[in-house]
Amino acid sequence: MKKLLLLLTVFAGSASVSAQVFWEEKSTGFATASRGVNQISYADANNVWITVYDGVTTTNVIREYARSTDGGNTWTPGVINLGVTTLGIGCISAVDATTAFVAAFPDTGGTGGVWKTTDGGATWNRQSTASFNSASSFTNVVHFWDANNGFTMGDPDTPTTFEIYTTTNGGTNWSRVPSGNVPAPLADEYGYTRNLYVNGDDVWFGTNKGRIYHSSNRGLNWSVAQTPIADMQNGNYAFVSSTEGLLTTDDWQFFRTTDGGLTWVAESPSGTFRNGAICHVPGAPTPTYVCLGNDIDLDERGSSYSTDNGLTWIDINQLGDDVNNDNGTDVEFYSIDNGLSSGFNTSATVGGIFKSVPTALANSVFSADKLFTAYINNATRTLQVNGKNISNVAVYDVLGKQVFNGSYTSVDTVSINVDSFNSGVYMVKVANAEGNSSTIKVIKQ
Description:
Number of strands: 34
Number of helices: 1
Distance between the termini: 71 Å
Strand order of the largest sheet: 22-26-25-24-23
Structural class: mainly beta
Strand content: over 45%
Largest sheet: 5 strands, mixed
Radius of gyration: 24 Å
């Protein structure tokens, strides 16, 4: 059996800096401990479905799900009963509070395919016209844009074409995408379970040959391009638009595309970016991403975000958040106020998933300058800069002339005499030892 994919601008005012809570841990409700979330699927801001795996023995086949009707605060777990015990769950796609689809693959035999529930997961029925009936059929992913329109993809069932179907009536009828619409696979090329990314009508999936297939019309027509890596099982990718996207690897390589994945350019972003799952944040005022996994410098698991299209990354752990956000498998945002990150439960009442804190986002946690504050204390005639591990402070006047520059060894407070500064507006650029930086506006009276 093939290997499966498991997987801020501040205007001065206060001298105090309070810790920001980005994630709150929620219970997924599974009775068995160490259930790890391997996929999060939003139907809307309130209705979310997840699937899980065994975090202790990852080769165990787990056919379980949970669903939430309150945006991830509370969860109801259940079993995905497909009527056979030889299939694994490859992918889930939520439609609403009661309706979802799963792609199932032959784990130890049987015929995989697409199953649908309309009663909240109590029963599941196979979608027979997405046949996946050949001996080489292996269903990898399924995705629905709404109650009617969806697609599903499986490995090539002949030497010449991936097995892809689309539906426009909620799975009542599925149509095979003609082979002429799908570039031919390479020899022994196949896809991976849950290895897809969707943004609007665009959808991408990756293969074991390091290639990414892309459709801009919900799976009807496809193109393919080689990425800089050999196997997409070792990569994570996300697209903030139909053309702009990022690709990271488990060994911390970083690439950018501006043409939808046709070409990729290697980059070295600043800050703390991680080697696990990555997603974009819909509705953010600037191109924003969140990523999970290990930090290459600190060897610490957690999460980070970028508000400048991936050029710089802010360590969420550094904001004073829970460093035990230790499952890098999946992260999804429905909107800037609704995000979820994979976790592990320790019991039926403790842990399993992390939910973003809407009040934190409303208070501009998605803002690099929240790492630092700066203000001028007129009583002491000093510019006070506060943060964590500050390594450099530079001050510029409104004409861009540098009036101060100081280097430090990971300090949390800097006090600068401003007697020589004229009255007016100044820009304070602060950087820390982790490579994060921001610019803060201050005014000297």
